[in-house]
Amino acid sequence: FQPEGLEFENTRMALRAMDNPMRWLLMLPIFFLFRRYKLDWRVIAIGLSIGVFAAVSVAVYEVYFLGITRASGTMNHVITFGELMVAVDLLLWVLMIFAWNNNNKLLATILLIASLVAFYGSLLSVTRGAWLVYIFMIFSFIIYTLKRSILNKNYLFSKPVLVRVFLGLIVFFLVAQTEQYKVIQDRTAHTITEVSQGKFENASGVRLATYRTALKTALHFPFGVGTDNFRTGAKA
């Protein structure tokens, strides 16, 4: 199971293969910038909030004015947008708790609203796979609580956490009253039906088949298949 090496079919594939490592190289100046100049966490939090408000505004326009079933926001793909909104939501959630614990109630309120908006943006994108992250986040909170103090429930059931969970349920309930929820319901029902019938190739947009191929590739090539050489890994 030796990979064939770097073989480019055309110039476009060659440039795309070079683009992936170049993105990591371009992050080096940012890395050294953060090492030299320490940014205030409040600046990062406010910047994330502004970005969320702008991106979700575009998503709302796409769904309710353009009639698009799945919003892509400011990204080039709906899945990318949904995953980004979930990731930013988790970051804002942590920053919200940190601001609350530092008696910065105003900033905590702003981050709470931004977190809810990010969650709403993920619902508009109907990126269901990204929502699994919330399950791991709940487990993380439980482990953190057990580690700090099993008797002190304030670590898990603090006011910002309870308010965020309650308002998040309200946002989901409100979305359930719209046509957007029908899109979520139909896609979820289709995935369950395909999986129950053993049609893994078509279930969830061939994602299950992709995951299975990725697992086989990782078993045969534990150190990777090389740049732009995924076809070889798929044949393993």
From TrEMBL:
GO terms for cellular component: membrane. Coiled coil: none annotated. Residues 114-227 form the O-antigen ligase-related domain. It comes from marine metagenome. Its main location: membrane. This is O-antigen ligase-related domain-containing protein. The chain crosses the membrane at residues 43-66, 78-100, 106-124, 131-150, 156-176. It is a multi-pass membrane protein. InterPro entries: O-antigen_ligase-rel_domated, WaaL-like. It is found in: Membrane. Keywords: Membrane, Transmembrane, Transmembrane helix.
